[in-house]
Amino acid sequence: MARVVVDVMLKPEILDPQGQAIARKLPQMGFEGVGAVRQGKRFELELDGPADDEALERVRKIAETLLANPVIENYEVRVL
Known about the structure:
The chain has 80 residues and is an alpha+beta fold.
């Protein structure tokens, strides 16, 4: 059994209102020195079997069809 993580983030050119709201709130809460915040999603998948090239390609297909919207989001697949 293998564990794979898919991190999904908005593309840099896409406005991130949630990240902006967090960035504005940080100084009010006493947290200084943070210039910008981008929010994203993390998915952990447990695979039946090893995280070989075929399994990782399957996870990439899952990411681009279900977990991420490739028009506005980038995703990264990595093995834990």
